[in-house]
Design a protein that fits this description.
The chain is an all-alpha fold. The protein contains 7 helices and no strands. The relative contact order is 0.10.
């Protein structure tokens, strides 16, 4: 438990940002991950849907492209050709499988990028809170609002559609209340 928890890829992010040796950086990364879990939650809970669709789309388009090429080019569908393909569906399946592998690699990379962005946000937010400073303007406001108001999905029993509706309603009511306060404040 003690040593294994320090083997975390976010330790390298802390090494790069804070110039700490690996083990102190790994401990700080674990602390930031705990802070992230408490304050932000797990924003990747919906990410699996996007990743799944990304893999399916890449695999499907690759398979469809191979099927189209094999069926449309005379070199592959002419029986007298040296490169004749007797069963285009098999070639399309192989192309789809290759697309599946490529799509998985791309979507896994996307998840790592998203995890790193959220980790860096949590690291910055934790530092600002410990120093008593406000967050800078370097974070897009929509992203900051999304992360700061992310609901704990583990306690949510409704559908994901209802969760999105609830989040949109909460965002709209916050916007309306801030808009009303701006209108009441004399300039």
């Amino acid at each position: 438990d003690g040593f294994a928890k320090l083997m975390h890829p976010n330790a390298y992010v802390v090494v790069a940002i804070d110039a700490l040796p690996f083990f102190p950086a790994a401990q700080k990364a674990v602390n930031v991950m705990s802070y992230q879990a408490e304050t932000i939650g797990n924003p990747n809970s919906f990410m699996w849907i996007f990743r799944l669709w990304g893999v399916i789309v890449v695999a499907g388009l690759t398979g469809a492209f191979v099927w189209f090429i094999v069926n449309s080019l005379e070199e592959f569908n002419d029986e007298s050709s040296e490169h004749y393909v007797e069963t285009p569906a098999v070639m399309a399946g192989v192309g789809g499988f290759i697309g599946l592998v490529v799509g998985y690699v791309f979507m896994h990379t996307l998840r790592n990028i998203a995890d790193t962005i959220v980790f860096c946000y949590a690291l910055d937010k934790q530092w600002c809170e410990s120093e008593g400073r406000a967050m800078g303007d370097n974070v897009p406001h929509a992203f900051e609002n999304y992360l700061d108001n992310f609901p704990d999905n583990s306690n949510h029993t409704g559908s994901s559609r209802q969760l999105l509706i609830d989040r949109r309603h909460a965002h709209n009511s916050r916007f309306e209340s801030s808009e009303l306060s701006e209108m009441r404040t004399p300039r």
